[in-house]
Description:
It contains three helices and three strands, in the order βββααα. It is mainly alpha-helical. A three-stranded antiparallel sheet has the order 1-2-3. The protein starts with 28 loop residues before the first strand and ends with a helix.
Amino acid sequence: MAGNPLAPSWLDSTIDSNDLVDGIWADSVSRSADGELIVAGISINSLAKQFGTPVFVLDEDHLIRRANQVRIAFEEEFNKAGTSAKVYYAGKAFLSGAVARWVSQ
């Protein structure tokens, strides 16, 4: 984003806002040939028909995988310094019974 020194260097205002930008979307999110959003193999339109809108969708496998990556990265770096770290999930980010179970794993 030219002209904004506070914007992250990876943020490109010229990209299509409908593109699935790496690092923002879960790796299980894609678009079908006709442009429909697909999450973990499930069509967003089918979720909207089943649950109504707005609907909030999380991919359990992706969330668990990313949480483990964060935990491992902290453990590795703190081990290099001869100490340890414990990673906690910030409930303010989003908290539900299911998410609490996933991150406790």
